[in-house]
Specification:
The chain is mostly helical. Helix content is about 60%, strand content about 0%.
């Protein structure tokens, strides 16, 4: 018969020279951040949903023009940026915790965290660039390809 270790029991440190515990105040601050960012994200997400779905004609009115008009206002650019950053940090911290809990080999943990951090950077950089460089009316574009609200 196989015995399964108690999941609530503290994990024994892996042997090795110069190993020190990485669980200290950092984990407590991560835990506190998850709670605070979760509350802020709920407010940001419900505000986002309210504006996108309740004001106007619902989901059928969300199109290129709606997003262009919304992002013409710096308030909504910052709103969406904060929502993107907080969601990515919150989610990445959660996945990092899962990796720490379930990846048993140090090398596996290192590779998974490296991939996680790479994905985080790519999504945050691309999302930030899209929010701040979005131009619904690029100059020197053919008039037939521009939305109706652009002056050719």
């Amino acid at each position: 018969m196989t015995t399964i270790a108690d999941p609530k029991a503290p994990r024994t440190p892996r042997p090795g020279p110069g190993r020190r515990s990485t669980r200290g105040n950092t984990e407590m601050y991560g835990w506190l951040f998850m709670r605070a960012s979760g509350v802020v994200l709920v407010v940001l997400i419900f505000g986002h949903l309210f504006v996108n779905l309740m004001q106007g004609n619902g989901v059928k009115s969300i199109d290129f023009g709606f997003v262009a008009g919304k992002w013409a206002n710096p308030l909504w650019q910052v709103w969406d940026l904060v929502m993107l950053w907080l969601a990515m940090i919150h989610g990445s911290n959660g996945v990092r915790t899962v990796i720490n809990d379930y990846a048993e080999k140090d090398r596996t943990r290192l590779v998974l965290k490296a991939l996680l951090y790479l994905a985080f950077v790519v999504v945050v950089v691309l999302g930030t660039l899209v929010i701040f460089t979005f131009d619904p009316c690029p100059p020197n574009s053919p008039a037939d390809l521009l939305p109706s609200f652009c002056t050719a």
